[in-house]
Amino acid sequence: MLRIVSLAALVLALAPLMCAQPTPVDPKTKFEVDTVKLSGPLVPGTPCGIRPQPGGQVYAAQCLPVKVMLTAIYRLKPDQIIGGPAWLDSERYDVRGKAEKSSDGEDLHTMFKNLLADRFKLQVHFEKKAMSVYGLTVDKAGPKIKPHEASNGGDPWIDQAQSPFLHFKLTATFCPMEYFAWRLGQLVDRPIADMTNLKGGYDFTLEYTADLPPNIPENAQINGAPIDTSGPNIFTAVRQQLGLRLEPQKAPVQVMVIDHVEKPSGDN
Q1: Using one digit for the tens of pLDDT, what is the confidence trace for 139-194?
Q2: Among 10, 66, 166, 213, which has the minimal tally of Cβ within 10 Å of its Cβ?
Q3: Contact 36/72 with Cβ under 8 angstroms?
Q4: Backbone angles phi and psi of 172, in degrees to 5
Q5: How far apart are CA 63 and CA 21, in angstroms?
């Protein structure tokens, strides 16, 4: 049974495939100014996240561990990051970078990578390791997603909303399949490899019902009413609504190995 968690290609060889290399970051692409501070106490309602801000100049992370920032910036799952001290998972930071002028999303990503490398003395390399994944493929009936019109511009993004409990709606704008595969991988129990061969960005919505968390009994209620578990799970929704499929298999997956990192000095 496929297990969903919160927070068809050929089967490939099981042996890890090594391809260590320096982090591909352009050192000239940097923020004009940046700040790095330890976050204050985490209290209910504190907004935590990482994303570009409107205007294309600011990229900010709030009350997040460095490892979470790395998963977002490099589009990895936590188990694709190897090594590093325990504080990468436990200490939360507020990190903000401002570019000299408005920049596109990929340049802001590169700037944030350089910010982490500079302020945390971060050095990494990448390897490929065979892992259990879901391959994202096109259903035999063809995709049901709409190509984004180039005239609309903008950066790739997916908004996520939950209402009611367990019922999620993802709204994608200008979304490449590689980015969509990464976002989906945060919602299931293993990485997702894009095998669609679909190029460009797409606009679409995806609505699905998540599984009950293991600590909540099936007869639990909210405000005196049974929890609504109706609706398709994420695997069915991807097939029915988007014309795509998620198929379990083995494939070589990129993993990040942390060679060196230090706690930042200066603002914090």
Answers
A1: 999 999 999 876 545 567 788 888 888 999 999 998 999 999 999 998 999 999 99
A2: 10
A3: no
A4: -100, 140
A5: 30
Amino acid type, 166: L
Q: What is the pLDDT of residue 42?
A: 81
Q: Which amino acid is at 89?
A: D
The predicted model gives 109-130 an average pLDDT of 94
Helical residues (DSSP H) of 130-248, grouped into ranges: 177-185, 234-242
* Sequence-ordered list of residues with C-beta below 8 angstroms from that of 71, at least 6 positions apart, any chain: 77, 78, 80, 81, 186
Q: What is the pLDDT of residues 64-91, one digit of tens each?
A: 999 999 999 998 999 999 999 999 999 9
Cα–Cα distance for residue pair 162/210, rounded to 1 Å: 10
- SS3 category, 246: strand
- Using an 8 Å Cβ cutoff, are 162 and 168 in contact? yes
The conformation of residue 116, written as its DSSP 8-state character, comes to H
pLDDT digits (tens, 9 = 90+) for 197-225: 999 999 999 999 999 888 888 888 888 88
